[in-house]
Amino acid sequence: MTSNDGYYEALWPRSPRQTKVKPLAPRLDTLEGKTIAQTWDYVFRGEEVFGFLEEGLKARFPGVRFVSWREFGNTHGGEEREVVAALPRRLKALGADAVVSGMGC
Fold first, then answer.
1. How many domains in the chain?
2. What is the pLDDT along the chain (105 residues), one digit of tens a residue?
3. Which among 20, 31, 38 has a CA at the least distance from the CA of 87?
4. Which of 33, 47, 53, 69 could form a disulfide with 38 if both were Cys (CB 3.0 to 4.6 A apart)?
5. What is the pLDDT of residue 57?
6. Is residue 12 included in any domain, yes or no?
7. What local confidence, expressed as pLDDT, does residue 10 receive?
8. Is residue 8 part of a domain?
C-alpha cells in the first residue's frame, strides 16, 4: 500500500473556451421609429410583462413598433434549438432593430 500523505491529484472540470468573446452591438440612440422584437421562454408571465413594457415604451417613444413573442415560438422548449437557430433570419426578415428577450425564473 502506497501513502499519498493526504494529497490527491485533481482535474479542472471545465474545458478550454471554444468560442471567442465578441464585442456587443452598439446601443441605439433612440427607440423612436424603431422595431423591437420580443422573445420569450414561456416560463414567467411574459404575456403580461410584454404588455406593460409596450405600453410604457409607446408612451415615451410614440413611433416605436413591436414584433410579438408569438411570432417566434418558445425559446426554451422542445423546439428550442430550431427557434433560436432561426432567430437571426427571422429578426432580419421582420426588420427588428432591437430585441427584448424575456426569461422566467
1. 1
2. 667 777 888 877 787 777 888 898 899 999 999 999 999 888 888 888 899 999 999 999 999 999 999 888 888 888 888 888 999 999 999 999 999 988 765
3. 38
4. 69
5. 96
6. no
7. 80
8. no
The model's pTM is: 0.73
DSSP code string of 57-97? HHHH-TT-EEE-GGGT-BTTSTTHHHHHHHHHHHHHHTT-S
- The residue whose grid cell reads 440612440 is 29
**Three-state secondary structure call for residue 50:** helix
Q: Which residues contact 50 (CB under 8 A, 6 or more apart)?
A: 38, 40, 66, 68, 69, 100, 102
Tell me how far apart the alpha carbons of residues 88 and 37 are, in angstroms, rounded to a whole number: 11
- Give the domain extent around 76: 38-102
Asked if residue 83 is part of any domain, the answer here is yes
C-alpha cell at 53: 413594457
